[in-house]
Amino acid sequence: MKKWVKLSFSLLIVSILIFSLGACSKKESLKKVRVAEVTRSVFYTPQYVALEKGFFKDEGLDVELKTTAGGDKTMTTLLSNGADVALVGSETSIYVYAQGAEDPVINFAQLTRTDGTFLVSREKIDNFSWDQLKGSTFLGQRKGGMPQMVGEFVIKENGIDPHKDLNLIQNIDFANVANAFASGTGDYVQLFEPTASVFEKEGKGHIIASFGEESGSVPYTDYMAKESYIKDNSETLEKFVRAVYKAAKWIEENDSKEVAKVVQPFFENIDLDILATSIERYQKQGSFGTDLILNEEGWNRLQDIMEEAGELPKRVDYKTLVNTSIAEKALNNK
C-alpha cells in the first residue's frame, strides 16, 4: 500500500513538472514585441481588444505595452531602443526624418483614420456654432502634435484665426491638459475619450463638437518602427498587424457595450457605460478602420495639415516613410 502511495505521488509530481515545463516552453516560444503608446485612450480600442482577446498570442506574440505620455516621449523611447514599436501620430516620423536620422522611423500600419478629440465647453451650449469660440480662452494641445494641428485646421475651416481670434493656450504638457481645464483654465478644451465623457458625466464640461467629424479622414495614429527593426522583423510585424486587424473586425461586428466589457481592464477607473458611450462615438465617426494601410492620399493630406499649421519641416515622399507591404501581406493572409 505504501509503495502504491509513493508511486502515485511520484507520478503526480512528474505530471506537474511536465505540465509546468510545457507551459514555460510555450510562453518562451512567444516572440516579445515592446509597444509604446502615446497615451491610454479609448481611441486605441482595437489594440486593447487584440491584447485582451488573445489575438496577439494566437499569432505567437507576447506584446508588452507601456504608455509614454506625449509624442516626443514616445518617439524618444523608440529611438533609444526602449520599445520596438510606437503607436503615435504620423507627424513624428517626419520630424525625426527632418533631423537627419540615420535609422528613420517608418509607418507600417494605420490604426486610426480620424482625429480622436472632441470640443468640450465649460458651460452647456445647446446650439453651438464655431463663431462662438471668438474671444474665448481655448485650451489646446501641444504645439506640433496632431491634435493641435488638426484642431487649428478645423477652427480655420470655420472662419476663425486661432492665433488672433482666440486666447490660445498651448504650453501645457499633453498629460496635464485635462487637469488644467478641470482646475478652471480655459472656456473650451480639446480632449480625447474617455476623458471627454467623464467630464460631461461629472459636470466639468460638455461635449459640443467632434474634431474627427469636422476634419474628415486623416492618418492620425500609426504603428511605426525603426527601419532596421522592420528589416529584421518583418514577419513578426506581419503577425502583429494581423492580430490588430482581427481586433478591428471583431469591433466592427459587436456593439459598443460588448466591446466596452472587453477593454475595461485597461480603464479600471472608468464606468462601463462611459466606456460604451466613448467607443460608440468613435464607431459612428469611423475612427476604427479595418483597412490598416496608410495610403498616399492620406499621407499627402497629413502634410497639408502640417504645412497649414506651420509645422512641416519639409515635404517627404510617401514611399520614404511609409511601408505598406507588411499590412498588405497581413491582410492577404488573414
UniProtKB/TrEMBL annotation:
Residues 45-254 form the SsuA/THI5-like domain. Keywords: Signal. InterPro entries: SsuA/THI5 (IPR015168). Its main location: periplasm. It is found in: Periplasm. One of its GO terms (cellular component) is periplasmic space. Coiled coil: none annotated. It comes from the Bacteria. Belongs to the bacterial solute-binding protein SsuA/TauA family. This is SsuA/THI5-like domain-containing protein.
